[in-house]
Amino acid sequence: DVPFSEASQHTKSTSPKVPSASPSPELEIEYISLTQLAREHNPESPGNVIQLWLQNRNTVEFLKLWESANNPLFNLDACNEIEEKLRNNAFTLTAKYWIEQTNGIALQSKSGRYGGTFAHPVIAWEFLTGLSPQYKLLLIEMNGLRDTLSRGGSV
Description:
This protein has eight helices and four strands; from the N terminus they run αββαααααββαα. The chain is globular, with a radius of gyration of 16 Å.
């Protein structure tokens, strides 16, 4: 397992500029390399780890919810078609296919030396919680600590 501090250092990409529904200026967010995170768990086949994660219906539902809330150009009809195709074991969902079909921004797929699959930090956290119970517990504990501090509590 990768120490938590290392997991947060796997950023190499910035978010695409997307038309915003609100008047606030658009922010560039550093996307996290899912390929690098997966490589820590399966050095020989990190792409397989990502692909298996994308085959999970809960993953697609999570992506659908996130995209619907954060991407005004998200193609919900295409997403629904992908969900239907996932019922067929012969269909393989890839990050590139997701992006192209749904106009998704949660994931990025890049080829070349510094390529791989990258994700918005929220999506990367979801990915990590599926890879390691340690990360899932850490996320839950961090959320509880944040809630305690926001209510004026002490640690």
